[in-house]
Amino acid sequence: MLKALTAQWIATLFVGGISFLITIFIARNLGPQAFGMYASALAAGSMLGILMDGGMRNLVLRERTRVSPHLQAIAPDLPGYVMGHALCTSSVLIFLALLLFEDVYLRLALATLACFLALSLNQVTSSFKRGEGALIADLRFQAGARTASAVLIVLCVALGYKEPWQILGTWAFAGFVYLALFKSYWQVPRFHGLTKIYRAALPFMALDLAITIYFRSNLVLLNFFDVAPELIGQFAAAFRLCEAVIMLTSPLSLLLFRHYRAKNYSIQNARIHLSKLLGAAIFISIAGTFLVFIYADQVTMLIYRQKYQDSAHMLEIMAFMLLFVLPNAMLTQAALALDKHRVTIFAATIVAIVTLTFNIFMIPAHGIVAAAWASVLAEALMFALMSIFLLYKTRQN
Question: Where in the chain are the domains?
Fold first, then answer.
């Protein structure tokens, strides 16, 4: 367990560190306005990426950890079904982009779709390795993929190609090239029998979509209201800092998922075990929130420099969302491992609806400040609902 956790933390710190440095590099070279467009494209792409993933990433992780009885016959063909779904959805989305956009927005849309298709397939490859317990191999895979994309992005910007679509297109190219090196995980696309796969993967896709909506919709919605592009860039810069902290929770939640799934925990035993872990998680979260809040101004100035001085206030607000991120990740992964999909989807859907409503009514009057508080509200509400449904309700039953 310690070896696996260490491997995943090394991977997370390395990939997160490279991503963080690339974000700083891009932000400084693009400036707040262009960086706001770049970050908005990433937020929109993450939602479309969920459609291209179709829940396959989490399905592969689950089935490679322990195969579900009703999927035993088609489990060996999962790589082919993943490819078939990715080709279908990406073709439809590219066609819609060609109909809806033109000029620079078309280039940005196509580059974003290509980027997230490559990212989706690379994440599924990582899920194969994680599900099989090959966490050291996954470390190498993640580190190599992020290094390759980072090097090409730096080269792209250094050569003077600083448009957001050019950066995203370079990222996509790096992702596809790296994916080709691991073709042993892939099969010829399969389409016959996709319906059965969809029935199994749909809960994961619905959950990913709901979480992404409540986590990233504020950044997308800022572009639809009368908010200055420079302010959107300020918000995006602070948001990326929070994401860097959030990445540190993924190794713990991944190993918790594998532990509960492989050991076939009962819901009662998992509840007792999880209740103890949450105490430690909350303590860590309080400490992290305090540090981010206290040093928000210094960290922002050190990383982004003077052009992003308004980001410090955004970071002070969004620091409070960190109180709930680690507990939420643990509760969510435990629910998925225990096949409590409906509980998680129901909670995430409620949070998405509440957050969207809050953003739509509050952003026009309060701008990026409202968007920052929406992030805090979303994580707090998700924690409350998951605690009630997964811990309290199961105890009552």
Answer: 2-396
